[in-house]
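Protocol step 4 of 6.
Sequence for NADP-dependent oxidoreductase (Nocardioides acrostichi) entered exactly as in the expression construct, tag removed. Do not edit the line below.
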Amino acid sequence: MRSRRWVAMRPGGLEVFGLQERDVPAPGRGEVLIGVRAAGVNPADAKHVARGGFAGPRPVGYEVAGVVEGVGPDVTDWRAGDEVLAFRVLGGYADHLVAPASDVFAKPPGLGWAEAANLLLAGSTAADLLHRVAAPAGATVVLHAGSGSVGRMVLQLARRQDVRVVATCGPTRADDVRALGGTPLDYGPGLLERLRDLAPVEGYHAALDAAGTDEAIDASLSLVGPGRLVTAAGQARARAEGFTGLSGTDPESAAYRDSQRQHLVDLAGSGDLDVHVAHTFALDDALAALELVGTAHPGGKVALVP
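Step 5 output, structure tokens:
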């Protein structure tokens, strides 16, 4: 039986991506073979290829949902037919994927395939942002890009922690932010002054940057002191000016994100964490999906459906 997957042939832009055919892989010790029903599409998928640091073909995609089709000889927690999701895997843009059994989680029955495939990267990033700033109940934080995929997760998790969030977003997304418990604020001219108008007497506890724009960085530096500035946007300037940069490739961030995966699955399964999927694409159309995500305004999560 043959299988298809997207790979990056070398570092570069979308022109280096190609659809590759191969035999369906067999799971080895400690591994699970998943028949992919949906794969999450994230900005990091293209950014990491552009950044380089690898040689030869590199599989693409970090999170999937699907059905177990086989297990390695020592795997006892999973069996064929189990509905699962997997995160911090490599090669999710495929119709079949072999994943470490330790990175596989039972899919909650009420969660759709596309939603399950888009839960854990954004969710664990949001959890990491809030963890790093350690905002106490009743505190107020600034969140840049509050209506984005990570921002929506931050809003929902912060509400559970009784942390108030003033979140920047476009005017058409204000109701979305409000519905998730945030106080929306349009970005653009006068942002700093408008943020100051909404600040509590004690000021903002922290600034969380999921946007990476100069506007977000400038406003954050003016509002919050050292040690309480965090970014998940990968912007070099933010790190240079004192933001703590969070990344799944950083050992501390990776360990914390991994520790939160089952908790996030449980929240989504109970209906306490919403995953908003705005677009789905066929596996053949992965490049169009990446182009949409690359605009930074896809309107929600994006999934590939093999």
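Step 6, annotate. The first helix runs from residue 43 to 51.
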